[in-house]
What we know:
Number of helices: 5
Helix content: 40-55%
Distance between the termini: 34 Å
Largest sheet: 4 strands, antiparallel
Oligomer: single chain
Amino acid sequence: MSTRYRFGDSDYPHFITYSVVNWVDALSRPAYKEIVIKSLEHCILNKGLILHAWVIMNNHVHLIASAQQGFKLENIMRDHKKFTAVALLEAIKENNRESRRDWMLWLFSAAGQQNPNNVHKQFWQQDNHPVILATQEIALQKLNYIHNNPVRAGIVFEPQHYVYSSAVDYFTNRKGLLTVVPIF
């Protein structure tokens, strides 16, 4: 699916959103969120990802990210989404305790059949909706948006209480689950 949103210069931070097809809350289980975390960690250590902020919600992920010199953010995101899609589909398929397993796998299969870019199933929507953060004002607005997402969703009262977010890195002296390079 073509979009007007494109990655710009990988040296600059981008606000990135990627979502599960049909906004299915397929990331509601901690084990599924851990797959996304492990992949982001791998991208940080091996693929040149610089992560400035992040949050994993039940049906989408927001990042503020850039890339180290010599790496392209669009390639990092392509590889990350491809790996996590395969790993998440397998985890759902193998989870006998997943009450929505058959329904989700059917839905991902139907989405894959509608998209000529996929062979069988589609987990993530095609787009990353990257927005280059050209000013400090825009960067601060997106940073607050990311960290307040779990608050707006009614999951926590304070951003730093949500485990699957970089808010703890920004609001406390503790380290979160992923290495973050503060944007300011």
